[in-house]
Amino acid sequence: MLSGREVAQHNSRESCWIIVHGKVYDVTEFLDDHPGGSRIILKYAGKDATQEYDPIHPPDAITSNLPPEKHLGPVQPDTVEKVEIRITDEEKERLERIERRPSLSEILNLHDFESIAKAVMPVKAWAYYSSAADDEITIRENHAAYHRIWFRPRILRDVTNVDFSSTILGHRTSMPIYITATALGKLGHPDGELILTRAAAQHGVIQMIPTLASCSFDELVDGARPGQVQFFQLYVNKDRGITKRIVQHAESRGIKGLFITVDAPQLGRREKDMRQKFEAEDPAEVSKAGKDLVDRSQGAARAISSFIDPGLNWADLQWFKSITKMPLILKGVQCWEDALEAYDQGMAGVVLSNHGGRQLDFSRSGVEILAECVEHLKEKRGLSFPNEKFQLFVDGGVRRATDVLKAVALGATAVGIGRPFLYAYSAYGPEGVDRALQILHDEFEMNMRLLGAPTIKDVLPEMVDASNLRSHIVAVPSDSLFNTNYEVMQHALLKVPAKAKI
């Protein structure tokens, strides 16, 4: 085993070793390629970087990105130099804000979680979770689109008891929602996605495990209750051997559906996140590295997603069908023509989604695409929705049970919810997610009654007016809760002048 003293000697740009989870890695040649910049690595040169590494990397990021000869072996724990953590004034203020959070009983809706998370999360973590592509038009449209759908409630129906349970790919869910895949869960809480695994079990909903989780895949499967249904979201690796191993391992662990992401051949530009990365970089270090040669514009996202295959195409779907018996769903379909092709290729369904507004700005909302898919797939293939053999899912912009009911009325089997659960546990930990799911439960119960629908099957197309859904210039009342939480994008700013020397 290496000694901490020996590791500590490699603390410069010329020779940079770091410790992660008790193992030593030589990252000297990786410094200039690190999307987060070299400064943060050099801060931990010769020291234990685990605490900084864990929240912003999937567990295998370092082992996957460094060649085997850079894996130097274990270190003697009692010899490792401790990193002195200095609490800045900004961090002290953030910790004080955490102490001033309202009680959970005062959190009345999912918007409230977002508001509190914005106040108490570290700035970089908030920027990563909340950022979206370019001018962030699509992320706002995802939510606004639901405001162009109005209800047509029915009256004098017996709604003494309402049942909003449903099934997704044949598996029961207590509500027509699922917890959709989101990356880097430990940015918001040390337990990361495990919080969602446990909450999904407690509330009878299904969790979609992300490829880029902060927790390992097996950790999340092991954390599930016996019989708990889980799905898996897949980014397809350029190395099909790796993809095959991941898929077949997921199937062997009991995963019930494979959601293949198809809307990310290249990452979108998330400028709020990017500004954080530029601010974190030491200009002197950029100069040393050769600023014209180092592109860090994609920030942390680039580090964890460079393996994704931009060559993925329709012909690959037959290969997927040959390596697994899991139902295959394409995640990120954005027009009816591609939904039709997915049906013809034997997929079990599609998620109508624009990646939470994080990819192509001015992509349309999932719920708008849903309406056109239902119309054209009925016309072309005689399909009616919801449909057990080919299921339509939607995600993006959902903040109320009424949003979900609108999508269900238009033909969706279920709706994926992502960011609100991240905000819930970033603000309040596991109890926050428990409260968020209970709020949705209560909203479903009330709104099903008011809609005149005793069961989910009674939520029909006639119960909504979506005639203005495709019009993007219709004036609707402003959603003040959503708009208050939205953080306006910033221009590039002048540098703050250094304090005059006395």
From TrEMBL:
<protein>
    <recommendedName>
        <fullName>L-lactate dehydrogenase (cytochrome)</fullName>
        <ecNumber>1.1.2.3</ecNumber>
    </recommendedName>
</protein>
<dbReference type="InterPro" id="IPR001199">
    <property type="entry name" value="Cyt_B5-like_heme/steroid-bd"/>
</dbReference>
<dbReference type="GO" id="GO:0006089">
    <property type="term" value="P:lactate metabolic process"/>
</dbReference>
<keyword id="KW-0288">FMN</keyword>
<comment type="similarity">
    <text>In the C-terminal section; belongs to the FMN-dependent alpha-hydroxy acid dehydrogenase family.</text>
</comment>
<dbReference type="InterPro" id="IPR013785">
    <property type="entry name" value="Aldolase_TIM"/>
</dbReference>
<feature type="domain" description="Cytochrome b5 heme-binding">
    <location>
        <begin position="1"/>
        <end position="76"/>
    </location>
</feature>
<dbReference type="GO" id="GO:0004460">
    <property type="term" value="F:L-lactate dehydrogenase (cytochrome) activity"/>
</dbReference>
<dbReference type="InterPro" id="IPR008259">
    <property type="entry name" value="FMN_hydac_DH_AS"/>
</dbReference>
<dbReference type="Pfam" id="PF01070">
    <property type="entry name" value="FMN_dh"/>
</dbReference>
<comment type="subunit">
    <text>Homotetramer.</text>
</comment>
<keyword id="KW-0479">Metal-binding</keyword>
<dbReference type="GO" id="GO:0046872">
    <property type="term" value="F:metal ion binding"/>
</dbReference>
<dbReference type="InterPro" id="IPR000262">
    <property type="entry name" value="FMN-dep_DH"/>
</dbReference>
<comment type="similarity">
    <text>In the N-terminal section; belongs to the cytochrome b5 family.</text>
</comment>
<keyword id="KW-0496">Mitochondrion</keyword>
<dbReference type="InterPro" id="IPR036400">
    <property type="entry name" value="Cyt_B5-like_heme/steroid_sf"/>
</dbReference>
<keyword id="KW-0285">Flavoprotein</keyword>
<dbReference type="Pfam" id="PF00173">
    <property type="entry name" value="Cyt-b5"/>
</dbReference>
<dbReference type="InterPro" id="IPR037458">
    <property type="entry name" value="L-MDH/L-LDH_FMN-bd"/>
</dbReference>
<dbReference type="GO" id="GO:0020037">
    <property type="term" value="F:heme binding"/>
</dbReference>
<keyword id="KW-0560">Oxidoreductase</keyword>
<dbReference type="InterPro" id="IPR018506">
    <property type="entry name" value="Cyt_B5_heme-BS"/>
</dbReference>
<keyword id="KW-0349">Heme</keyword>
<dbReference type="InterPro" id="IPR037396">
    <property type="entry name" value="FMN_HAD"/>
</dbReference>
<feature type="domain" description="FMN hydroxy acid dehydrogenase">
    <location>
        <begin position="102"/>
        <end position="469"/>
    </location>
</feature>
<keyword id="KW-0408">Iron</keyword>
<dbReference type="GO" id="GO:0005758">
    <property type="term" value="C:mitochondrial intermembrane space"/>
</dbReference>
